[in-house]
Write the structure tokens for this entry.
Amino acid sequence: MIREDATIDSGALYDVANVLGMSDQQVRLCIKRLIADGQFTQEGRGRKALLRATNRVRSTITPDREYVRYMYAQDTGSAPWDGVWHLVAFGVPESVRAARDAMRDAITRLGGAPIQGGLYVSPNRWEGLISAAATEFGVGRHVATLTTTDLSVGGVDAPRELVDRLWPLDQIAERHRRLLVVAERSLSALRTASPTEHLTIAIELAAEFTQAVEPDPLLPPQLLPQPWVGTTARAAVAACWAELLKSGRQPIRLFRWYADVIAEVSQTATSDRTASSLPAADHCV
């Protein structure tokens, strides 16, 4: 509910929390904790108060725009797979188990699938992110990366069959099916929603979107069953974001960021299609 000026209207916060089943007392306790922790300051009291995010919080609430940008670029066909598999191997000593576990978690968050102990693969270029994670956890000298266009796992080498074998496509698809249901319901409800309902729908949509996309390895469309429900669900969410920005009220910062990213991707995709349809220069009269 953080708006573009990094504030939250307490009255709206109470109203939305009530709709979601929280009491006023629970909301007050949550606000007190946020203020005590230095995440927000408060101007005024009760439902008329204005909560303002501190600089510490402002630096952490920006979503991973590059992740969202790449996701929608894949959906629009602007980021096709180049046929290269990207692998990372690591052998971190038992003496630094915490760092080893952190590195493994980072690799799986980046969409890596395990091939065998300490060896993971992704169809996406991730070397920079892997290097950053290895540096953060102090295990850089125990990590190796490589690329190949000739990957075989257990006798399987066809790219689509490898994806079926290595990633839980059914689970990924099911999360996006739930997202699609929520997005379609939200889009219909937003057109006639009251201000409180508007914010409630936005929060529920954001929560479902996070549950669907955070564990998504962003596999290229060329390697997925078609039509892919993830593409359909994310298009429905984008329509909701656009509808959320039509209200005329100060928009929630998160949805403005997402809408801006989608607009950038759509413009790039349109430009690419236009350029590809133009005749070559040496054929022009």
Remarks:
- Strands lie at 7-9, 40-43, 50-53, 85-90, 113-116, 119-122, 143-148.
